[in-house]
Amino acid sequence: MSTIDLQALIPNNVNLGDNRQLQRALEHWQPAFLKWWDEMGPSDFNAKQVYLRTAVGVDAQGWASYGYTAMPDYRWGIFLADKEEGRRIGFGDFMGQDVWQDVPGEFRSTFRRLIVTQGDTEPASVEQQRLLGHTAPSLYDLRNLFQVNVEEGRHLWAMVYLLHAYFGRDGREEAEELLERHSGDPDKPRILGTFNEPMDNWLSFYMFTYFTDRDGKFQLKSLAESAFDPLARTTRFMLTEEAHHMFVGETGVGRVIRRTLEVMKELDTDDVAALRRAGVVDLPTIQKFLNFWFTSSLDLFGSEASSNAANYFANGIKGRPDEARFADHVEADTEMTIQVPDGRGGMKNETISTRNGMNEITRQEYVKDCNVGVTRWNMATKRAGVPFELKLPSTRFRRNVGGWAGTATTPEGQPIGQAEFDARKDEWLPSEADRAYVKSLMQRVVEPGKMAAWIAPPDRGINANPVEYEYVKL
Ligand SMILES: [Fe+2]
Ligand SMILES: [Fe+2]
């Protein structure tokens, strides 16, 4: 196993101390990162002690330690999964050759762009969630928000390490720009659309951590297959942390549903107005928020047919999630079918090469994974005897990227006219009134163990502590 230097200014398991030049460059970037955290990270909580998990190694058993920390003192480190001796390229035209310990010159700009795009999402989400601490429904949730935030900060470090270590001066410039773009900034926005969406309520936060962090999981899984070994090892370790983010999302949405079901039973009603008067989020509104964040996250996978994606696959740059599970790792002449608008208000099948369809293959795997949690949420409504089923909309619905961009459809994916979409969109997506209502519920609750009235308590606390533990010392 690799040795871990936890005492260093920048904790790491990459022997940073042996590379003075790289160490100096990263130590130079560190104050800029801290300044960014101070200005753009969680607002007004920097002096508070938070019960946080910190990555201290890459051993599956003991990789994290828990304790109280003020967020600016968090030990953001550089951790790569251990090197697999004799690892070979697992897909594409270089299949079977040794993996690369350095970036081949001909793929340098492609790798740089992929790493920058991934890296950009990490601080972006922290910026989006900046104000949520003020309206946390409990101390438990407040702590989870900050846990997600500091780990996204560490993921930024993970990408910045790669940029500094393997991309020379261009990499250093990109690392600086990662702190200069900001979520929702009209002049210098973040690279991807979803990461510029405003987030002023916790229902959106849970949907985001369920759906958008899960996009992250699939991007990281695809990069974990890369022939560029330092990238593969970096992303493999990021996945370890990422699991908690999706847990926060799945249990968060589940707790909102559970609380709504309780009140539906108490009042014996499914009347939206009555439930809103009682201060909970009605199930149709939960469905609309789901529709919004799921479809927004679908766009992050890119176009169904993409020659860039084919190039990444052919050259071993980016594979499919869990590539080993696919039968054919080369896909030299194979084909697949996608659905596209036929231009006459309907749709038609189109045959493309499998290599061109890599984004769509990854998106389909993502949809399957999203459905696991939806099924669990529906178990709660079923158990309560409520005839309401949450559903993922079609991947054709409300798309802004790919073949379905600009084609209006119903949530079931049936093409319709733009006028019909505009007339019905408030049935399917959060309206101004829905957003204002959800926002009106956001009141801060800070007594240990207490929950806001619109959300049920979690089943258990963090790291075997009780739910009423003082997760943040305010
Ligand atoms: Fe992340
Ligand atoms: Fe995440």
How does this model look, in words?
The chain is mainly alpha-helical. α3 (139-166) packs antiparallel against α4 (168-177), α5 runs antiparallel to α6 (229-267) and α5 runs parallel beside α8 (283-298). It is 46% helix and 6% strand. It has helices at 20-40, 108-128, 139-166, 168-177, 202-223, 229-267, 272-277, 283-298, 307-314, 358-383, 418-428, 432-441, and strands at residues 49-55, 64-70, 335-341, 347-353, 472-473. The chain contains twelve helices and five strands. The strands form two sheets. It has a three-stranded antiparallel beta sheet with strand order 2-1-5. A two-stranded antiparallel sheet has the order 3-4. Bound molecules: fe (ii) ion (2 copies). One fe (ii) ion is lined by residues 152, 213, 216, 242, 245.
Radius of gyration: 23 Å
Q: Which sheet architecture does the biggest sheet show?
A: 3 strands, antiparallel
Which molecules are bound in this entry? Answer: fe (ii) ion
Individual helix count? 12
Main structural class: mainly alpha
The arrangement of helices and strands along the chain is HEEHHHHHHHHEEHHHE
- End-to-end Cα distance, whole Å, is 39 Å
Poorly predicted runs of 5 or more residues: none
Strand content: 5-15%
Number of strands: 5
How confident overall, as mean pLDDT? 96
Spatial strand order of the main sheet: 2-1-5
Shape: globular
Percentage of helical residues? 40-55%
Annotate the secondary structure layout.
Blueprint: H1 20-40, E1 49-55, E2 64-70, H2 108-128, H3 139-166, H4 168-177, H5 202-223, H6 229-267, H7 272-277, H8 283-298, H9 307-314, E3 335-341, E4 347-353, H10 358-383, H11 418-428, H12 432-441, E5 472-473
Antiparallel strand pairs: 1-2, 1-5, 3-4
The protein binds fe (ii) ion (FE2) (2 copies).
